[in-house]
Backbone:
């Protein structure tokens, strides 16, 4: 039989020495596999093991997923919160981390277990982060002892989790720092805010964002922790629950398993809930945008932004600081659970008027022309008082207007309700 090994070697090249061939894949100093590259590419190399397993060998059920807070954070998975600037993203995440560190449902979401939290603020300095924590602590009555040994914070600047190295993509020093602190402090969840400050890559490159995201997922899996990376949205109109709202390439979005959006209350929502226009910016809704390991929430979770005085005044600044935090908020029960379809059906009937040509009225003295029974017809579990409140809110916000018309039955001018179609709920 011919020498096959020799057949691949040119006449003027030395034969391949079997003793120089690697018997296993060497590892780099940081523990990552390094693929062997032989200077003579014709030589065969040892392939890494695939790690396949026989499904028939596993008869017991796997352990349940280890959720930490609601459907927001889970061990071994990457979470994210997409929100425009100044929406309250950091305030909400800060309170959620405090809920985990204290074991208290501060956001109204279920705390599965008390957790050790590592919070990295990549934009704010230590003092600003302390102000944010102080605002939440004051309003929610959290003492320093409640957090001792449970919440750890850092504000590193210019230290990357991933970066470009010698023309290629590589892990930055922050990755090794995180692994060390997570192990030493026995961390359960790490928050890295914001994503854009975490790396030095081109955020519009799917290849680069996939590299960063895979490193984050690997961190979560290797150390059995939850990793959360809030992210800014791209410019333009934001839609609640839009999975494509995040800045940059889609790879960052695709790697996350627990992605949510945070958006301000819209004018239409404000009109529906009876919130004055000047106050609507204080209300934000949290929606699942890509929750593919748990059923998505059918309804938004609402929060209200509030200012908290820190009482930290000095002679130069006697008023001290007022810093934002959040509190859970629920839409008025009058409106709770009513769909836009139900409301529009009632508005359709009000706009059509009575069969005899008369128009409906919101007046308390109205009998056969009373509009509240029309609302109740389409919202059957609401009381007369609640239905009248819905009508009052519609009139206050311009969804319905009171106009004079010629009553065809009584043959005299009367006032009745008309619908402004441009302000209907959607």
Residues:
């Amino acid at each position: 039989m011919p020498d096959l090994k020799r057949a691949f070697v040119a006449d003027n090249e030395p034969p391949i020495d079997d003793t120089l061939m690697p018997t296993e894949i060497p590892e780099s100093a940081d523990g990552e596999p390094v693929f062997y590259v032989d200077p003579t590419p014709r030589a065969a190399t040892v392939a890494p093991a695939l790690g396949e397993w026989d499904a028939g060998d596993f008869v017991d059920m796997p352990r349940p997923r280890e959720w930490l807070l609601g459907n927001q954070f889970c061990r071994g998975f990457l979470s994210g919160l997409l929100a425009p600037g100044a929406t309250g993203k950091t305030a909400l995440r800060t309170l959620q981390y405090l809920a985990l560190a204290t074991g208290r449902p501060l956001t109204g979401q279920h705390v599965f277990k008390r957790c050790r939290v590592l919070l990295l603020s990549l934009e704010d300095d230590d003092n600003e982060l302390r102000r944010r924590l102080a605002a939440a602590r004051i309003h929610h009555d959290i003492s320093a002892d409640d957090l001792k040994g449970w919440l750890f914070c850092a504000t590193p600047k210019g230290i990357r989790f991933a970066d470009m190295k010698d023309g290629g993509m590589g892990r930055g020093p922050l990755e090794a720092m995180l692994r060390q602190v997570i192990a030493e402090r026995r961390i359960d969840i790490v928050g890295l805010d914001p994503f854009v400050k975490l790396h030095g890559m081109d955020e519009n490159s799917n290849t680069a964002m996939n590299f960063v995201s895979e490193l984050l997922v690997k961190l979560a899996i290797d150390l059995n922790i939850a990793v959360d990376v809030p992210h800014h949205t791209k410019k333009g109109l934001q839609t609640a629950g839009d999975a494509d709202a995040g800045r940059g390439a889609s790879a960052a979005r695709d790697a996350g398993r627990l992605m949510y959006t945070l958006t301000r209350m819209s004018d239409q929502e404000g009109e529906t809930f009876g919130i004055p226009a000047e106050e609507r910016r204080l209300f934000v809704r949290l929606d699942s945008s890509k929750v593919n390991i748990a059923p998505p929430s059918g309804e938004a979770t609402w929060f209200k932004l509030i200012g908290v005085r820190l009482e930290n005044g000095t002679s130069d600044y006697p008023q001290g600081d007022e810093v934002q935090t959040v509190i859970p908020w629920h839409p008025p029960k009058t409106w709770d659970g009513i769909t836009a379809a139900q409301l529009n059906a009632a508005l359709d009937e009000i706009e059509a008027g009575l069969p005899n040509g008369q128009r409906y009225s919101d007046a308390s003295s109205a009998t056969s022309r009373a509009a509240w029974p029309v609302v109740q017809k389409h919202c059957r579990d609401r009381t007369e008082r609640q239905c009248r409140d819905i009508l009052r809110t519609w009139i206050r916000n311009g969804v319905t207007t009171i106009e004079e018309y010629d009553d065809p039955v009584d043959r005299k001018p009367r006032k009745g309700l008309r619908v402004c179609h441009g302000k209907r709920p959607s």
